[in-house]
Amino acid sequence: MIWESKMPINEVREIRCKTTVFFGVGAIKKIFDICADLKNRGIDKVVVVTGKGAYEKTGAWKHVVEAFNAHGIQYVLYNKVTPNPTTDQVDEATKLGKELGARAVIGIGGGSAIDAAKSVAILLEYHDKNCRDLYEFKFTPSKAVPIIAINLTHGTGTEADRFAVVSIPEKEYKPAIAYDCIYPLYSIDDPSLMTMLPRNQTLYVSVDAMNHIIEAATTKTTNPFSILLAKEAFRLITKYLPQALMHPEDLTARYYLLYASLIAGISFDNGLLHFTHALEHPLSAVKPDLAHGLGLGMLLPAVIKQIYPVCSEVLADVLSPIAPDLLGVPGEAEYAAEAMENWLRQMGLVEKLTDLGFSENDIDKLTDLALTTPGLDILLSVAPIPATREVIKEIYKDSL
């Protein structure tokens, strides 16, 4: 593998894999063991953070309530988290948790609910702070109450990483935070909870995972572990996503998409992210109804086109399931981008930014947001090519 010769072996880099994840069909039943452990830790009051309905429709809530009752755990439920959760929602959930005296947080849902739960866990330890303080980096947290993540999608990997994303609506900011104190203590990844995902959501969350690994494998801070996980995650997504789209209740397909999402989360927990996420956050900050994975998918081919010349060896290896004839040379950038776009189109992601109401008139504003939103500067700083204003504008323009 040509990329191995390019790995800077004299640079010391972190390798992370910290959360205990209960993985597999039926894993939701492990909530009983988790509640027993919480009780042993002296925790008998929790706040549950979730969205408006999936926590019940999937059947997850039934198991959680039974486990609470079996172990004498009191709880308060906050079920108003929306896609692209807001600082106000986190503050509301935190208030409920503080009123109860909660000493742990359980997030049930996809990335939105779990990221909101992580944010609540921090704020339960900092009584003089609010969520805007947290996401505008007005303080640096070093502690959070224990977090339990019950995952309902196969996309974010947030159940096994130290990241969270919450929007500040009035500023059209969608910042990302990353702190060791918000690794979940335990997570549940049960594919049987995901068979009801609608077709579009199945596609978008899988595209999210795909972006995680393409970015993580190509940052300035990547390591061989990130690249190893990226290759396997990409192989699994391209193999099992078509099956899940055609047969939503196929547990084998859901199992491997969920596994791909999990290891993609660990991949970018190690390698970090760069252009696609840094440039998507402004899109869904301006248009909160925009699905995160859809935004990422619209940007991905343009990002590959920009970065391929300096990451050709790694990307040729990772993208080989959809473009086996890539040689790993810089001149293939256009071809690699087209291969990615063609695959996305085959899966059903055909939209461009203009289809979502964006135009050339929006590019300067989006570029400003990418460059000024708190936290996104960290992602842009590890991009494989300089994240100049011109490069960012070119990616947006190519994605119209």
UniProtKB/TrEMBL annotation:
Fe-containing alcohol dehydrogenase-like C-terminal domain residues: 204-399
Domain Alcohol dehydrogenase iron-type/glycerol dehydrogenase GldA: residue ranges: 19-191
Superkingdom per UniProt: Bacteria
Keywords: Oxidoreductase
GO cellular component: cytosol
GO terms, molecular function: alcohol dehydrogenase (NADP+) activity; butanol dehydrogenase (NAD+) activity; metal ion binding; methylglyoxal reductase (NADPH) (acetol producing) activity
InterPro entries the UniProt entry points to: ADH_Fe/GldA (IPR001670), ADH_Fe_C (IPR056798), AdhA-like (IPR045910), BDH-like (IPR044731)
Protein name per its UniProtKB record: Alcohol dehydrogenase, class IV
